[in-house]
Write a structure and sequence with these properties.
With about 100 residues, this protein is mostly helical. It is about 90% helix and about 0% strand. The chain has helices at about 5-30, 40-60, 65-95.
């Protein structure tokens, strides 16, 4: 793939992330938070689709095998770091 095509594809990924985040934010504004831990779970969901977008960019520039490895390790790192935060948010909301 030519460099200009890669740059265009990455721009499309970034545009999709921006549009998706704006839509996600509108959805959050329209839905009241009622469940314990809802805020942290919403953040985790946003992080998840951002990681997918980043993996697509890695795939565009470095190949899909590297993108899959990046996504696996990034998700594992975020899950290990985020699980205690989500649990704490749930505990505080229930408290």
């Amino acid at each position: 793939m030519k460099t200009t095509m890669r740059i265009t594809a990455c721009g499309a990924v970034l545009s999709g992330l921006a549009a998706g985040s704006a839509a996600y934010n509108r959805w959050i504004d329209e839905h009241e938070e009622t469940e314990p831990g809802a805020t942290s779970l919403r953040v985790a969901l946003g992080t998840g689709y951002t990681l997918i977008g980043a993996a697509v960019v890695v795939g565009i520039w470095h190949g899909w095998k590297d993108a899959a490895a990046f996504l696996l390790w990034a998700v594992l790192c975020f899950a290990v770091a985020g699980a205690p935060m989500i649990a704490g948010d749930v505990r505080r909301d229930e408290g």
